[in-house]
Amino acid sequence: MIITGVIRLAIIEVENLTKIFNSFVAVDNLSFVIEEGEVFGLLGPNGAGKTTTIRMLAGLISPSKGSAKVKGFTVGSDSLKVRETVGILTENPSLYERLTAFENMDFFAEAYGLSDQQKKQDRIKQLLTFFGLWERRNARVATFSKGMKQKLAIARALVHEPPVLFLDEPTSGLDPESSKEVRDLIAILSANEKVTVLLCTHNLEDAQKLCFRVMIINRGKKVIVGRTNDLRNRISGTLKVEITLKNLTPEIVTAVKNIPHVKQVHQDESTSKFSVNVDDIESDTPELVKKVVEVGGLILGVNVVRPSLEEAYIKLIKEEKE
Quick one: 63 and 78 in the same domain? Predict the structure, then answer.
């Protein structure tokens, strides 16, 4: 597959993946592909099947039907190899709070089979430095903030240098500053380290800022999969252009309403802004600006307003339920 002119390998391949608990279908025939170095978002309401999907792909539980491959290893028959290939951060990461940050990392490095002492210590130092925790390496985890614990949990998931990382709600419960730090770190891992990330999240801001593509699921079924910008544009119908003026006058509003391609005009006199719906941003915006200038408008700014991923998500989930 080609994205922006770069050929990328399929790292995760999922076909008709299904999980049934007794008579309850938690995941229902999911099919999708995730490419090398991609941050792929898995979105959906509570109970949609996101965590169950991640647990299957990580080799922690077996699928009832369907198939999945992670870096060429088959989920189910090659589950041990799959677990060696992935790092996983669960929604409630288990850290040993009585141990120090370094001791936590050392314990899990041993569990993943890192037996060479020098290589293991170098890797731990590299990760704790990368996540800004090296200076606190000898402090007990019980003294860490939630944001520090989350960063340590991600570092732990990366200790064996996995090419694939599964993150289940990585910014849940974090303050805005810590959330941004975690988002920035995920972006760096994808861009610089070529780590493939499957991001399961309720935080639509995380998905919009990090993911090139997302899949929305509901009640175990795929609602839609696509690029974030495509999903946002899909619900917008006509796009909006917002213009900020030094002074918004009735003459300007009237002139804009008379432009043939303008659908609606929304004015905000308190901020001297107005926005209009147009069919074609590239051809209609210059005409709009020209008309405003002709009637004496002093333009301070012109912006294209697109719907957020959150708006797209809510609309698509609502349509699926109906």
Answer: yes
Residues 60 and 153 in one domain: yes
CA-CA distances (angstroms) from residue 194 to 8, 164, 200, 250? 11, 9, 19, 54
Q: b/e map of 12-23 (b: 16 or more CB within 10 Å)? A: bbbeebbbeeee
In terms of domains, do 8 and 120 share one? yes
H-helix or E-strand spanning residue 309: helix 309-321
- List the one residue out of 15, 2, 4, 127 whose CA is nearest residue 70: 15
- Local confidence pLDDT in tens for the 322 residues of the chain: 334 445 568 999 999 999 999 999 999 999 999 999 999 999 988 889 999 999 999 999 999 999 999 999 999 899 899 999 999 998 877 899 999 999 999 999 999 888 899 999 999 999 999 999 999 999 999 999 988 999 999 999 999 999 999 999 998 888 888 888 889 989 988 888 789 999 998 888 888 889 989 999 999 999 989 888 777 766 655 578 889 998 888 899 899 888 887 877 888 767 888 888 777 777 888 888 999 999 999 999 998 777 677 777 777 777 766 6
Rounded CA gap, 131 and 161, in Å? 15
Residue 102 in any domain: the answer is: yes
Q: How many structural domains does the chain have?
A: 2
- CATH number reported for the structural domain that contains residue 296 in this entry: 3.30.70.100
Q: Indicate the helix (H) or strand (E) that contains 111.
A: helix 101-111
Amino acid at 86: V
Q: Which domain holds residue 254?
A: 237-305
Measured CA angle at 130 (ends 128, 135), to 5 deg: 45
For residue 70 the two structure tokens come to 């992670």
In a domain, residue 247? The reply is: yes
Helical axes 176-193 vs 146-157, angle rounded to 10° = 20
Task: Answer yes or no: do 88 and 107 share one domain.
Answer: yes
The helix/strand/coil state of 30 is strand
Cα-only R_g, the chain: 24
